[in-house]
TrEMBL record:
This is Methylhydantoinase. GO terms for cellular component: cytosol. One of its GO terms (biological process) is glutathione metabolic process. It comes from Gluconobacter sphaericus NBRC 12467. InterPro entries: ACX-like_C (IPR049517), ATPase_NBD (IPR043129), Hydant_A_N (IPR008040), Hydantoinase_A (IPR002821), Oxoprolinase-like (IPR045079). Residues 505-677 form the Acetophenone carboxylase-like C-terminal domain.
C-alpha cells in the first residue's frame, strides 16, 4: 500500500485525510489541536490515523500539510516583536497606509493595529529613483546603528523596505547583509525577497507581515520537522501556500507570508474538485473552524487568483486564492460589550482551554457552547464519542451571560448563533455582493468542523436556495491537500506602454523569471514531464491605478509583435467584461509580468455509488430535543448517522445528521438529498 496523507492543523482540531493510491480508499481522523506546540497534535493525529487503516510510516508516499498558525497569529496579534528599517522620511508609511478608513461610512470602526510600533521603525539615508538611478547612496553605518538598536530593544524579527527596491534591490540586499552581521539571531527579510513589485505601502506591509510571522513559523516548522523525522517519515513533507499549491518546508520558513491562507486554500481546492464532479460550478465556500471562518467565491468552477489581498486588515502582496477571513468560529467567545449588546468574537478559546463544555477551565461561553445548549450539537460527546462534553457547565455560564443581558437562557444561546450568522453573512457579501455577484445565483458549500452546523441558517440569511455538505466536511482542507499540485509564483514589475517592437523586452523579462522557475523546479525535484508554466501580465490603461491579469497567448520563443497586439485585445475584452466598458484607443500599459510554475502530482479520485432510493430510515440512530427559533422551543428531531446514508436517500427537516468530523443541522422546512458521490444537497426552502 502507498498512502497519501493530508494534514490540516487548525486552531481547535487537527484533521487527517488518508488516501490509498492502490485501492482508492479514503479514511479520515480528527484529534484536538495542541496550541502550545501544534506539532504535538499533528504527530498524534498522524499516528492514530495510520493506526485506523493498519498502515506504517514507511507506507506514506506523500505528506502535505496545511496550517492556520500564521492566519491565527495575524488575527489574534500573536506574532513576533518586529522592527522595520526603511528609507529616510518613510518611517510612518506603515501607519499612514492609503489614508483610508476601514469602512467609509463607519466612523467608529478602528484601523487595524500597526504591526511595527513607531519606536521600532528606523529610517536610514538612501534613495533610489523610479528609473533605478541612485540619488542617495546607502549609509551603511546608519543601518548598523538601527540593527544594534533593534537588538537592544529585544525584537525577534526585522523587516527592510526601501523605495523602488523592486527595480534596483542593491541597497536592500546590502542592508539585509548588515542586519544579518549585526543581529544574526533575528528573523530578517527584505521587500525584494518577499514582494518585488511596485506600490510601496503594500510592499512594505507584506514584508512587515512576513517578518511578524517569521519567528512563529520558524519555531513551528522546526518542531514539526523534528517530530516527523522521529516518526520515521522518509518523504519530504510539503506545506500549503495561499495560492492552493504546496511548497517545501524550507521555502515556507523563508516566506511565511505565503502561508497566511495555508489552511483554507486547500479547502477551496477540494470544493472546486467536488463542484466539478457533482456538476455545480457556481459555489460560495463557507469554511468555519474553531477560530475563524473563511469564504470564497467559485464562478464557473474556478476561484479567482489574486496577486494582492487584505488579510484581517493588512495588505498582503502575494499570490493567493481570493479568500476572505473573519474571526468567527466555533471557539469565538460571547460577551456583553460596554453598550450592553451581545458580541461574539474575534477572540477565541481555541483548543485549550476550549469551550466551556470541554471542562478545561474556560468560563466564557462560545459559539460551540451555544450549539450544545440548543442541542444542535450532541450534548454528551463529540468526535464520534471520543470527546466527552459537559452541557451542565455550558448552561450555567450561558445563564450568567443571559442574566447580564436581561434575556432568557435559550434566547441568549440562539442570540449567539444569530450574531455569528450575521458576522458570516457580512463576510460572504464582501466576496459576492461587493464584487458584483448575487449570492442567490450560487450554492453554499459548507466546510470545516462547524460549517454544516451553521450553513443552512447562513444560506437562509442570504436567500440562497442550495447548500452542499461534502462527505467529509470537517476535513476538507486535509482532503484538498490530496488534490493539489506543487506551485510557486514569480513576478517582476516593469511598467511600459505597449508599442511595436517591445516583445523583445517582454521575452527578456520572462526569460529571467523562467530561470527562477527552473531553479525552483530543481529544488523541488520536479521531473521535466511533470512541469507546467502559466505566463501572464498585469495590464491597465495609462492613468489607471489598478490592473487586470492577461494570459500570455504563446510560448516565450514564439513571441512577436502580433502576440503583444493579441494581449492588448485580450486586456480590452477583459476590461469590458469586468467593468462594462473599454476604450479601443487609449494607450495600454504592461505593469507586472508573472510566471506560475506548477509541479504536477498524483491526485485522489472520487467514487460514484448506485442509487438506493429515497428511504433513509435505516440511517436513523435515535432522537433528541433540539431548540429551534422557528418554534421558540424544543422539538424532537431524528438523528441520522451520516455513514449509513446512501445515494438517493432523502432527509426532511427538522433533523440532525451526525458524523465523526461534523454535525449537519436541517431546520424545519428544509430537505436534504444524497447525491451519487454521497454529498448532501440541501434545499433551504428559500
Amino acid at each position: 500500500m502507498a498512502w497519501r496523507l493530508g494534514v490540516d492543523s487548525g486552531g481547535t482540531f487537527c484533521d487527517i485525510c488518508l488516501y490509498d493510491t492502490e485501492s482508492k480508499r479514503f479514511a479520515i481522523w480528527k484529534v484536538s489541536s495542541t496550541p502550545d506546540d501544534p506539532s504535538r497534535g499533528i504527530l498524534t493525529g498522524i499516528t492514530e490515523g495510520l493506526k485506523t487503516v493498519s498502515a506504517k510510516t514507511s507506507d506514506i508516499s506523500f505528506l502535505g500539510h496545511g496550517t492556520t498558525v500564521g492566519t491565527n497569529a495575524l488575527i489574534q496579534h500573536k506574532g513576533a516583536l518586529t522592527g522595520f528599517i526603511t528609507t529616510d522620511g518613510f518611517r510612518d508609511l506603515l501607519e499612514i497606509g492609503r489614508q483610508q478608513r476601514p469602512s467609509l461610512y463607519d466612523t467608529q470602526e478602528d484601523k487595524p493595529e500597526t504591526l511595527v510600533a513607531q519606536a521600532l521603525r528606523f529610517e536610514v539615508p538612501e534613495r533610489v529613483r523610479h528609473d533605478g538611478t541612485v540619488e542617495v547612496t546607502l549609509d551603511e553605518e546608519s543601518v548598523r546603528d538601527a540593527a544594534r538598536a533593534l537588538k537592544k530593544a529585544g525584537v525577534k524579527a526585522v523587516a527592510i523596505g526601501f523605495l523602488y527596491a523592486f527595480i534596483k534591490p542593491e541597497h536592500e540586499r546590502r542592508a539585509y547583509e548588515i542586519v544579518r552581521e549585526e543581529f544574526p539571531e533575528a528573523f530578517t527579510c527584505a521587500s525584494y525577497q518577499v514582494a518585488p513589485e511596485f506600490r510601496e505601502y503594500e510592499r512594505f506591509s507584506t514584508t512587515a507581515v512576513n517578518a511578524y510571522l517569521g519567528p512563529v513559523m520558524e519555531v513551528y516548522i522546526a518542531r514539526l520537522g523534528a517530530r516527523l523525522l522521529e516518526l520515521g517519515l522518509s518523504v519530504a513533507p510539503r506545506i500549503t501556500q495561499s495560492n492552493g499549491g504546496v511548497i517545501s518546508f524550507d521555502l515556507a520558513r523563508a516566506l511565511p507570508v505565503r502561508t497566511v491562507l495555508s489552511g483554507p486554500s486547500t479547502g477551496v481546492v477540494a470544493a472546486q474538485a467536488i463542484g466539478r464532479v457533482i456538476g455545480i460550478p457556481n459555489i460560495i465556500t463557507f469554511d468555519m473552524g474553531g477560530t475563524s471562518t473563511d469564504v470564497a467565491l467559485l464562478k464557473d468552477g474556478t476561484c479567482r487568483l489574486t496577486g494582492e489581498a487584505e488579510v484581517h486588515g493588512y495588505p498582503v502582496k502575494a499570490p493567493m486564492l481570493d479568500i476572505h477571513t473573519v474571526g468567527a468560529g466555533g471557539g469565538s467567545l460571547a460577551y456583553r460589550d460596554n453598550g450592553g449588546l451581545l458580541k461574539v468574537g474575534p477572540q477565541s478559546c481555541g483548543a485549550f482551554p476550549g469551550p466551556v463544555c470541554y471542562d478545561q477551565g474556560n468560563l466564557t461561553p462560545s459559539t460551540t457552547d451555544a450549539n450544545v445548549a440548543l442541542q444542535t450539537l450532541n450534548p454528551e460527546f463529540l468526535l464520534g464519542g471520543r470527546m466527552a462534553i459537559r452541557r451542565d457547565l455550558t448552561m450555567e455560564r450561558i445563564g450568567l451571560l443571559a442574566k447580564e443581558l436581561g434575556m432568557d437562557v435559550m434566547a441568549t444561546a440562539q442570540g449567539i448563533i444569530s450574531v455569528v450568522t450575521a458576522n458570516m453573512a457580512r463576510a460572504v457579501r464582501v466576496i459576492s455582493v461587493q464584487k458584483g455577484h448575487d449570492p442567490r445565483d450560487y450554492a453554499l458549500m459548507a466546510l470545516g468542523g462547524a460549517g454544516p452546523l451553521h450553513a443552512v441558517r447562513l444560506a437562509q440569511e442570504l436567500d440562497m436556495k442550495r447548500v452542499i455538505i461534502p462527505l467529509t466536511p470537517g476535513v476538507m482542507c486535509a482532503l484538498g491537500l490530496l488534490l493539489t499540485d506543487l506551485r510557486a509564483d514569480f513576478s517582476s514589475t516593469q511598467i511600459m506602454v505597449a508599442h511595436p517592437g517591445m516583445y523583445t523586452d517582454i521575452v527578456s523579462i520572462f526569460r529571467d523569471l523562467l530561470k527562477q522557475a527552473n531553479h525552483w523546479f530543481a529544488q523541488e525535484n520536479v521531473r521535466e514531464e511533470d512541469r507546467g508554466l502559466r505566463m501572464s501580465a498585469d495590464m491597465r490603461y495609462v492613468g489607471q491605478n489598478y490592473e487586470l491579469a492577461v494570459d500570455m497567448p504563446v510560448s516565450i520563443d514564439a513571441m512577436s509583435d502580433e502576440s503583444v497586439t493579441d494581449m492588448v485585445r485580450s486586456f480590452i475584452a477583459t476590461h469590458e467584461a469586468q467593468y462594462g466598458f473599454a476604450s479601443q484607443t487609449d494607450p495600454v500599459q504592461f505593469v507586472t509580468f508573472r510566471i506560475e510554475a506548477i509541479g504536477k502530482v498524483e491526485k485522489a479520485a472520487f467514487t460514484s455509488h448506485p442509487d438506493s432510493g429515497p428511504d433513509a430510515q435505516s440511517a436513523i440512530t435515535g432522537a433528541r430535543d433540539v431548540w429551534f427559533p422557528e418554534t421558540e422551543g424544543f422539538v424532537s428531531c431524528p438523528i441520522y448517522e451520516r455513514s449509513l446514508l446512501r445515494s438517493g436517500n432523502e432527509v426532511a427537516g427538522p433533523a440532525i445528521i451526525e458524523q465523526m468530523d461534523a454535525t449537519t443541522v436541517l431546520p424545519p422546512g428544509t430537505r436534504a438529498i444524497v447525491e451519487p458521490h454521497l454529498n448532501l444537497i440541501v434545499e433551504t426552502g428559500r
